[in-house]
Amino acid sequence: MGDSITANGYVDRVLADDRVLVWFDIDNTLYPASAKIGQEMGVRIRAYVANLGFSSEEADKLATRYSKQYGLALRGLVRHHAIDPLDFDRKVDGMLPLEDKLKFDPSVRKLLEDIDRSKARVWGLTNAFLPHAKRVLQILKLDDLVEGIVFCDYRVKDFTCKPEAEYFGMAMKQAGLSDPSKCYFVDDNRGHVDAARALGWAKCVHFCERENLEGEKIHTERENGVVEIATLEQLRSVWPEIFVKHP
Ligand SMILES: [Mg+2]
């Protein structure tokens, strides 16, 4: 009897969880592009593709094309060259010098701490595989502030990734969400943000460096409702309703 009361109490709490969910992309969002991880990744991807028998020029073109076309170079490599994604993960993401390049930024930690957890859950939403995502969050000292991570599962044949609708649907399912109006999302990739927005994710933010003529960091809203920000701190003014109010 006691057990069933406990179980029902738990179910009631889950069903009553009407908090919104804030999805953070990880790479080049929770740390700045100036850390140049993207470049390090590019070098390793091109080397990997060249190793399949392409000239370095062809490798460069292919990697760029797949990255644009599929949101993730690896997606194209799996589809058209039948490569083993786990081998790719070991030789590309697994070899990135993250510990040397990434720096803990207390202001990003404070930003995540200041999200009111009685109103919002915080999850990661990445096109990387889980080991890389975890490694980044640990170095940035954010792992205890991110409650769940939706990642590309490189072990699954034909795994899905952003910006595919299926991927966003899978993310919501994993989080137990059915209402896209409860989704907040920030990503440095415009295509990913626009795709989520088109699916009805309510509060989509594109993180990109933008300055006005005076060199001031600005945020603007586009016609599809996506807001562009130049610093993560601007999330406090774009999404004031989910941050704790400091006296
Ligand atoms: Mg990113």
Give an overview in words:
The chain is an alpha/beta fold. It folds into two domains: 2-31 and 102-242, 3-Layer(aba) Sandwich (Rossmann fold); 35-99, DNA polymerase, domain 1, CATH 1.10.150.450. 43% of the residues lie in helices and 12% in strands. The chain contains eleven helices and seven strands. It has helices at residues 2-15, 37-50, 56-70, 73-81, 85-91, 98-101, 106-113, 130-139, 165-175, 190-198, 235-238; strands at 20-24, 120-125, 148-150, 183-187, 203-207, 220-221, 227-229. It has a seven-stranded mixed β-sheet, covered by helices on one side. A hairpin with a 5-residue loop joins strand 6 and strand 7 (227-229). Helix 2 packs across helix 3 and helix 3 (56-70) packs across helix 4. The N and C termini lie far apart (45 Å). The structure holds magnesium ion (MG). Magnesium ion (MG) is lined by residues 25, 27-29, 187-189.
Quick recap:
With about 250 residues, this protein is an alpha/beta fold.
